[in-house]
Structures are given as C-alpha cells and as structure tokens.
Fold these 4 entries.
Entry 1:
Amino acid sequence: MVQQDKINYVVAIDPGPTKSALVLLNLKREIIFRAYDHNDTARKSLSGWQMPGTVMVIERMQSMGMAVGASVFETCYNIGRFVEMWPLDSYLVSRGQVKMEICGSMRAKDPNIRQAMMDLYGGERRACIGTKKQPGKLYGIAGDLWSALAIGNAFINFMGRGEHYEYIYQQANDACRVNPIN
C-alpha cells in the first residue's frame, strides 16, 4: 500500500508501441511536465524525475479475449522497459480501473475521460484549456496525454483512499517483482 505522506509527485504513463504519453503531477494535481515522445526519448526524460517521493504509475495491458497484433506486444515490451529503468516505486493500473475511477463506468470512452478531466480542472473548455495567449491548466494536453493525465489522477484518488493496486518494485541486484492486488 502506498504511504501518501512519502509521495510528492506522480509520473503517469500511457504506453504505446513506439510513442508514449507522460505527465508529471504533484499531489495538488498540478501538471509539472507533459510530453508525447518516442519511447527512447520518454525513458530519457524519466531519468530526470528519479527523486525520492516520486512514483511511476503506468497503464498495464489487459486481456480482452481477442486476438492481438504486434503493436500490443511491442507496448508490453515498452512497459517492461519503463519499469526496468525506474529505480523507485512503480505501480500498474488497468484501463478499466481508470475508467471506473474517473468516469464511474466501464463503458467510458476517450471523449468521456477527456470531459471528466476538463471538469476536474475547471469545467468549461475555454477555462481549463485556454488559448495560446491565455493558457489554462490543461493547455497542451492532447491525444494520449489525456489518458496519461487520467491515469495520474486516478492513482492520486486511489492513494487518497489507501487502496491496493499492483505494486512493482526493484532493488539493486534483484529482479522485478509484482505483488498482486489484495
């Protein structure tokens, strides 16, 4: 279980086969950094955030019972690469957990998640996203960054309630271990 008093920042990642979305949030839900980059570049960005009090939360793959293509396996590989290079606490959350936490429904789609994030950060599109001349709190959030933002906010909610989720941790000469949700 996460000890909230030891966490200051959350790095949330929506992984992809070639590019991933990263959002760095503080516990006040302020966006410190955001990027949508090639996975190698994204991993390099993460190295600058490896400071005590920072956790990484990444969306995990979830079987839907259908055949999958090469891009799904490449995404799984990249999730492993992110976890491998991150020396601090790491957590996995499923898309379903994020949908239920942010929208209250497993039927939620990307537009529903985007709207829920806008509601959380100020409601009206003009107020929360803003313009180039008057950027709002969500200025620059687009595409997969919405999902990364939702992952981070869902995790902050889970943490606030002291809930359990998959915890991955690493030690100097140890392999990566996963403790299942209790």
Note: Residues 169-182 have pLDDT under 50 and may be disordered.
Entry 2:
Amino acid sequence: MYKVTKQLKIIALTAWSITIITSCGVRKNTPSGPRSHCVSEHDTVIDRIVYTKSDILPVYGTNSSDFLLFFSKEFNYPQQQLDFQGKVILEFIIDDIGNIYKSWIYNKEEKDHSLVDKEALRVLKLSSRWKPAKCNERYVWFRMKIPITF
C-alpha cells in the first residue's frame, strides 16, 4: 500500500510541473533555417553535436505524461530511503532513432548518488524507445532533463 501511495504522490507532484528543461551550453550554434527553433552544441563527452532545442521534442509513448506513468509504475523506493522527499533531475541524451544513449543525474557525480538516484536511473534505462527529436524535418540527437519530485 505504501508503494502505491508514494507512486501516486510522484504523479501528483510531478505531473503539473513536468517541464522538459534544456541545457545551457557555452558553444551553441545559431538556429538553423529561417523558421527553425533548433539550437545545438558540441558535446565534448560524446564528441558529437547534440540539440538542446528542436522543432519537435522527444517523447516517450504518445504524450509527456506517459513517461511519468511508466516511471511511477516501475519505480521501487529503496527500503533505506522510504521517507525521501526531494527532487531528482534526470538528464539524458536520446539518439536520432530514439534510444537513450547516455543518462546521469544532473549536477551530481556518480559517487554521490543516493539509492533513490540509482533507482531513478535504473527506471529511465528500462524505458523503451522514445520518439526522437526532429529539427528541420530530420531526426537529431537531443539532450533533455526531466525533474522528478518525490
């Protein structure tokens, strides 16, 4: 029963505030094309161009709430942190065919991950293929952040 209550709390607290937060990079390219809202930057870790704004954002399932439903269904609170309250910001890169290429917790080194952080990353990696971002009618690699409030 506690697990269900906590899952509903995740949805209730996060659903109204889900925002895809894009990264701010230093080396950004200007938007491409006259009507495009696309912004890209060179990601030095993976050594490729990654978009932070696009004409069509990546989506899991059919809409933005599908990921939250999936997340709340699959997330299992670690027994040592059942009363955890706070926010975990998942940051990840989706490639041009919709796979999660790389994922991490925003502003946290791996050695500092809590059990809740590790579980959130585990669930993110379980998510099946996303619909990739599109810029100027072509699929692109995209970096996104999703805040999950507990």
Note: Confidence is low (pLDDT under 50) at residues 1-5, 11-30.
Entry 3:
Amino acid sequence: MGIIQKLFTVLLLSQPILAAADKGAREYSPYLDQEYRQKLFFGDTHVHTPYSTDAGMAGNRLGPDEVYRFARGEEVTSSSGLRAKLQNPLDFLVVTGHAENLGLAPMIAECVTSAHMAPNDLIH
C-alpha cells in the first residue's frame, strides 16, 4: 500500500472519531437559527456609456439617461437602431465609466460629424 493510500485510509477512518469528539462542541456558525430574507435582486454592476472610450469607440450611443430608462423597463432605441425593452426591469444598475479619456469617443464622433466625414474616412 502506497503512502497516499495509507494517508487516505487514516483520514477516512478518523472521520467518525473526530465527529464524535466534536458533538459536544459549540456550533461554528452563530447564524444557524436565524432566518434570512429570501428575496433575490437582479441587476448589472458594470455598464459603460459612450463616455467610456472602450464602449464609445465600439459604437455604444446610449447615454446614462437611456441606460437607466432601459433598466427600469422602458423601451429605448439601441445603438444599432433597433427598439429594445427588458422583459422584467432590473432591481439595480451601476453605470461605470473609465476616468481616463472620459468623453473622448463622443468628442471624436462630433468632430467627424461636423467635418462631414464618414468614420471610415479617418482610417487609411
């Protein structure tokens, strides 16, 4: 019998002894007899708007107002132009934005629009 098998056997055989010795001990968790609320909340803790460069450069056009309206279950027009609505509203939503380059994507989009250029014209 190898060392691993011997160790495993010792552990298996010692379990009833340890359990019996621990029977009179105080329970580990002080919360055993307490009831907890059983209500689950559903939401999103990480949503970016176009003000964050990664979302803005990827084509996100929904600002914080539209994002919160969507989370509350209202219909919005998505960045792709399709109408969108959640079947059930969210219980919570956190709009997060990257501090670095905050607002850069909308600023670039505005420059491109005011110069009457297509976004692909910038790539050569």
Note: The chain has a mean pLDDT of 78.
Entry 4:
Amino acid sequence: MLTALYNLGVDYDAVIKRNDAATTLAAMRVVVGIATWAAPGIVGKIVGLQESGDSRYLWRIFGIRDAVLGIGVLASQGETRKMWLKAGIVCDISDAMAAIVGGRSGTLPARTSASLTAPAVMGIFMGLAGHKLEG
C-alpha cells in the first residue's frame, strides 16, 4: 500500500513519522476504503446489511470515496490538507445522519444503525481534532 501511496506523490516517510489525528484518520480511510471496495459483501455483513448487487455497488462508491479522502489528506499540506479534512468531516456528518435517520425510521435495524453511526461519529471527532492541530 505504501508503494501505491508513493506512486500518488505521497511522502510516506513523512506520513509514517507524523503521528496525529489527521494522519491516523487518513490512513484508516485508505485502508477501510480499499478493503470496502475490494470486499463489499464482507463489509455489509459486518454492519448487518443484506448483500445484493445494489449494496455491493453502493459499498464500492463509499470505499473509493473514503480512500480518496484519505489519500487527499496524506498527499497535501497546509490549507489544502485542511480542505481535505473538512470534506471528510462533511461526509462523516452525512453518513452519521443517514444512519441515525435509517434507524429511527425503521429502514435500518437498530444494530445496523449503531454500527454505521459509530465509525462516522469517530471520523467526525478525529477530523475535527486533526483540523484543529493543523492550525
């Protein structure tokens, strides 16, 4: 994976040395994004959604979005990095709201709603912390 990031212009030596919320979140986004794109059925089962062709398609959209958001943070600095962090925060807020609405309306089982809400909320807080540390 580091080779792929290097090929995208990411200075992975600097990424590895840097230990902050933004870098941790970005690395998690890349790993989760690639895994979700590659194995959407497994991710769906983990969060409690039934697998279908439609769900695999939607998981892959989510996966590539998260991977790109992570790579954007890892490959940038300064104001550009803060912009990527803000984009991730907006996506995480939207994901959390969608999961909560789904759970409250009954279109998602409570366990599924919780398992989708929790990582989105974690992403919001890590994104905000990372944004704050960026200055």
Note: The chain has one domain: 2-133.
